[in-house]
Amino acid sequence: MLEAQSLAARRGYATLFRDVRFSLRPGEALVVTGPNGSGKTTLLRMLAGLTAPFEGEVRWRGEPVAPFAQALRDALLFNGHSSALKDELSAEENLDAWLRLDGERVASEVIAQALADVGLARQRRLPARVLSQGQRRRIALARLRLASRPLWILDEPATALDTDGLAMLAALVDAHLDGGGLCVAATHQALVLQSTRAQSLVLHAAVA
Amino acid sequence: MESPSAVDAIGWALRRDLRVAMRSKGELSVELLFYVIVVTLFPLATSPSRDTLATLGPGVLWTAALLAALLSLSRLFASDFRDGTLEQIALSPAPLVGLVSGKIAAHWLTTGLPVAAMAPLLGIQYGLDAPVLATLALSLLLGTPILSLVGAVGAALTLGARGGGSLLALLVLPLYAPVLIFGAGAVDAVRAGLSAAPHLSLLAAGLLLAILAAPFAVSAAVRIALD
Question: What structural domains and CATH numbers belong to chain A?
Answer without folding.
Answer: 2-202 (3.40.50.300)
